[in-house]
Design a protein that fits this description.
The chain has 270 residues and is α/β, with parallel strands linked by helices. The protein is built from 6 helices and 14 strands. Strands 5-4-3-1-13-14 form a 6-stranded mixed sheet. A 6-stranded mixed sheet has the order 6-7-8-9-11-10, covered by helices on one side. Helix 1 runs parallel beside helix 2.
Length: 270
């Protein structure tokens, strides 16, 4: 199976890049399943219902969120009615929506998508992500119940994301980090056969401070005071993520490649 995961969509320019480029990539690369992290698609903070529908219309088979999952209030009812949008599995059990779901892919194949939130250096204390993902993977065994499994680890610390990669090794097709908005260069297949990347980066303008216009973040670094709101940078976005090919029999990765299309970063493709 050919899988594509795109990192955090950042504001209007990120949404535009996904809408313009993803349909063509689905065709050119023969993609079977696409996951997009929509965590910052609306003004850099959360995902509105309209923008969620836009990502799905552009060709995302599933959209994951993160620590800003509920920032846009109109997403809450959509989380209950639209199964293709997922919030982290280790949120409170009373939180709306679901953190993991099995989707249909071409040829009668099934794909598990799940998201966990890290705890190291994050603002809120969430449930243990390692304990939270275990029952999900055990219920949907790779190569038995599902032909592919994609785990989005929305976390600040690279160490925690790497730990999750090894924790899930052999039980998932792909473990990929999100949240930091900077793509890492460590795409690899772990010893157990799971593709891993510490961070997929962002679909946003890299002439910025992690996707935000530069002036206000720099002012706060220098003065320690806020003067204005953070605003997403509006230049041309780089579509950033990771591509994986899997063995349908085992669900394990055969190939992994970083993806960077458009914008300022050096281009990368399968």
């Amino acid at each position: 199976m050919k899988l594509l995961f795109l990192g955090d969509v950042m504001g209007k320019t990120g949404r535009k890049a996904v809408a313009e480029r993803l349909p063509g990539l689905r065709t050119a690369w023969g993609l079977d399943f696409v996951v997009v992290n929509g965590e910052n698609a609306t003004g850099g903070m959360g995902l509105s219902a309209d923008h969620a529908r836009g990502l799905l219309a552009a060709g995302a088979d599933a959209v994951t969120l993160g620590d800003h999952a509920f920032d846009q209030k109109d997403i809450v009812p959509l989380l209950e009615s639209e199964p293709r949008i997922l919030r982290p599995v280790n949120y409170s059990k009373l939180a709306p929506g679901h953190g993991a779901r099995v989707f249909d892919a071409p040829g009668g194949r099934r794909v598990l998508v799940a998201q966990v939130l890290g705890r190291v250096f994050m603002k809120q204390p969430f449930d243990d992500p390692f304990s939270a993902i275990d029952p999900v993977l055990k219920t949907h065994r790779l190569g038995v119940a599902v032909q592919a499994a994609i785990i989005d680890v929305h976390a600040e610390a690279t160490s925690e994301k790497m730990g999750m990669g090894h924790w899930c090794d052999g039980q998932a097709s792909l473990v990929v980090g999100t949240h930091t908005h900077v793509p890492t260069g460590d795409a690899q297949i772990l010893k157990g056969g799971t593709a891993y990347l510490s961070d997929a980066g962002m679909c946003g303008d890299y002439d910025s401070v992690i996707g935000m216009e530069k002036l206000e973040p720099m002012r706060r670094f220098v003065t320690g005071m806020a003067k204005a709101r953070f605003e997403p940078a509006g230049g041309e976005a780089t579509l950033s993520g990771v591509y994986v090919e899997t063995d349908d029999r085992t669900g394990l990765a055969l190939r992994v490649a970083m993806v960077r299309q458009g914008g300022r970063l050096q281009e990368a493709a399968p």
